[in-house]
Design a protein that fits this description.
Distance between the termini: 8 Å
Largest sheet: none
Strand content: under 5%
Helix content: 40-55%
């Protein structure tokens, strides 16, 4: 299944921005000059078999994307950015990275 770049780029940006809020550095602490150590994944979560296409999940992700972009374009949404971020983290934890 080929995913349009209009969907992939905003989703990647959303996940990257969500990760920005989870820094373990305390306020005012300077970043280390040492290269970052890559995170280690749990063995069971490292490799997942391909899942069948989940149309409901697809529609939910596309809806989240549209609400996210509308919110950034100045159209207030009933759902907060934090709520979308939390839900996206749940989806990734449950289903793995969307493909």
């Amino acid at each position: 299944m080929k995913v349009p770049s209009q969907v992939v780029l905003p989703l990647v940006t959303l996940v990257a921005l969500a990760a920005c809020g989870t820094s373990s550095r305390s306020a005012g602490e300077q970043p280390s000059s040492a290269p970052p150590t890559p995170p280690t994944a749990a063995p069971s979560a490292a490799v997942r078999p391909p899942a069948a296409f989940d149309e409901a999940l697809h529609d939910e992700l596309i809806g989240m994307l549209e609400r996210d972009q509308a919110d950034r374009g100045g159209t207030p949404q009933t759902e907060s950015d934090q709520a979308r971020t939390t839900r996206l983290k749940e989806i990734i934890r449950t289903h793995g990275w969307p493909r």
